[in-house]
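Worked example 3 (structure in, sequence out).
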């Protein structure tokens, strides 16, 4: 595991279940360039344990992810998420 991935795991943004990477809600929002609050407002749990997103949130996440890929000149999710999570943590700590 590289240093960025380790940092994301240690700070709760990323976990692994059965070897597959899983994002928490904040990480999912950051990777889609929307606020965690917007992400929570646009998602809904269903009784079988699944999650649904409203169409507006899906559109915003897709657009936001494309913007971040252009900003970072990369499609590497770990690179993008690490950069956005670091920025988010700095902003939270300044508040």
């Amino acid at each position: 595991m590289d240093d960025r991935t380790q940092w994301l795991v240690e700070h709760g943004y990323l976990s692994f279940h059965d070897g597959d990477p899983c994002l928490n809600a904040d990480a999912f929002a950051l990777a889609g360039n929307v606020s965690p609050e917007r992400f929570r407002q646009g998602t809904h749990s269903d009784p079988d344990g699944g999650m649904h997103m409203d169409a507006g949130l899906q559109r915003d996440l897709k657009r936001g992810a494309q913007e971040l890929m252009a900003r970072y000149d990369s499609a590497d999710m770990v690179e993008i998420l690490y950069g956005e999570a670091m920025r988010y943590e700095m902003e939270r700590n300044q508040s």
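Notes: Residues 3-94 form one domain. The longest helix spans residues 55-72.
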